[in-house]
């Protein structure tokens, strides 16, 4: 009986500590390969703003530990996305709606990538990503936005372009959206949508990189968009960039 009481008190204490540190981001890591799991856990140990609340290699352990811990972002790292992984994403979103899911996968199947995002994944990193992308994804998702690696963005935009080409009337419905933007913001959005980097845009327009970033943030806020994919969709709908 004493052991049970102590265990409950320990879990209660952990939750209280987590709740009082509002700046900390609590992540969970689910990876079937223990070596990769330990490497990720070791890497995040040096980050003062990111705390590994759980690190597990089995689905059973994942849900067992999530029941007693605060997890802001759950990183699911798999080689290929399976239907079982899709079920895991859906289950997490149903049981823990405040937990955002970030997928790390080598999967090259467009259909499974799209299904994972539809299942509730807020971010997706692939083999073209590096550790800086992982950190940026965590902060971006915690800030309420989606984050996708370049290859995933191309998949989403390709699917979107195919859909909008087959429904020109849908594109016409958005023709007036761009009136909310200034001419400078439209110019920056056009260059960015054409694949130019922030530095390239800054050099072309004779402004600082920070000014470019500020303009892009203001555009996102004005249009109430959550991700770079949404921003590109907006630009396609309003003929700011061509497909």
Describe this structure in words.
The chain is an alpha/beta fold and 243 residues long. The protein is built from 12 helices and 6 strands. A 6-stranded parallel β-sheet has the order 2-1-3-4-5-6, with helices on both faces. Helix 6 links the parallel strand 5 (121-125) and strand 6 (147-148). The protein is globular, with a radius of gyration of 21 Å.
Keywords:
6 strands; 57% helix; alpha/beta; globular; disordered N terminus; 243 residues; 12 helices
SSE diagram, text form:
Blueprint: H1 2-20, E1 25-31, H2 34-44, E2 50-56, H3 59-66, E3 73-78, H4 83-95, E4 100-105, H5 110-119, E5 121-125, H6 131-142, E6 147-148, H7 150-165, H8 168-172, H9 183-193, H10 198-205, H11 209-223, H12 228-237
Parallel strand pairs: 1-2, 1-3, 3-4, 4-5, 5-6
Helix pairs in contact: 4-5, 7-12, 9-11, 10-11
Give a concise summary.
This protein has 243 residues and is α/β, with parallel strands linked by helices. The protein has helices at 2-20, 34-44, 59-66, 83-95, 110-119, 131-142, 150-165, 168-172, 183-193, 198-205, 209-223, 228-237, and strands at 25-31, 50-56, 73-78, 100-105, 121-125, 147-148. The protein has 12 helices and 6 strands.
**Helix coverage percent:** 55-70%
Low-confidence stretches: 1-5, 169-176
The number of strands is: 6
How far is the N terminus from the C terminus?
67 Å
Largest sheet: 6 strands, parallel
Question: Which outline best applies?
Answer: globular
Q: Count up the helices.
A: 12
Q: State the secondary-structure class.
A: alpha/beta
């Amino acid at each position: 009986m004493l052991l049970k009481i102590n265990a409950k008190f320990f879990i209660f204490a952990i939750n209280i500590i987590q709740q009082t540190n509002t700046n900390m981001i609590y992540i969970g890591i689910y990876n079937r390969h223990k070596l990769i799991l330990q490497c990720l856990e070791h890497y995040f140990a040096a980050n003062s703003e990111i705390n590994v609340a759980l690190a597990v290699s089995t689905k059973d352990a994942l849900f067992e530990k999530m029941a007693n811990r605060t997890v802001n972002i759950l990183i699911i790292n798999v080689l290929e996305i399976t239907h079982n992984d899709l079920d895991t994403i859906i289950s997490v979103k149903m049981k823990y709606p405040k937990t955002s899911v970030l997928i790390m996968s080598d999967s090259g199947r467009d259909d499974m990538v799209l299904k994972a995002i539809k299942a509730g994944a807020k971010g997706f990193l692939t083999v073209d990503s590096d550790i800086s992308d992982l950190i940026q994804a965590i902060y971006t998702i915690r800030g309420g936005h989606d984050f996708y690696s370049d290859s995933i963005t191309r998949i989403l935009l390709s699917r979107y372009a195919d859909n909008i080409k087959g429904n020109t009337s849908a594109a016409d419905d958005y023709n007036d959206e761009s009136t909310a933007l200034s001419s400078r913001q439209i110019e920056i959005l056009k260059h960015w949508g054409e694949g130019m980097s922030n530095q390239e845009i800054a050099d072309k327009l004779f402004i600082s990189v920070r000014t470019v970033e500020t303009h892009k943030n203001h555009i996102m806020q004005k249009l109430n968009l959550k991700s770079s994919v949404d921003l590109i969709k907006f630009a396609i709908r309003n003929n700011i960039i061509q497909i």
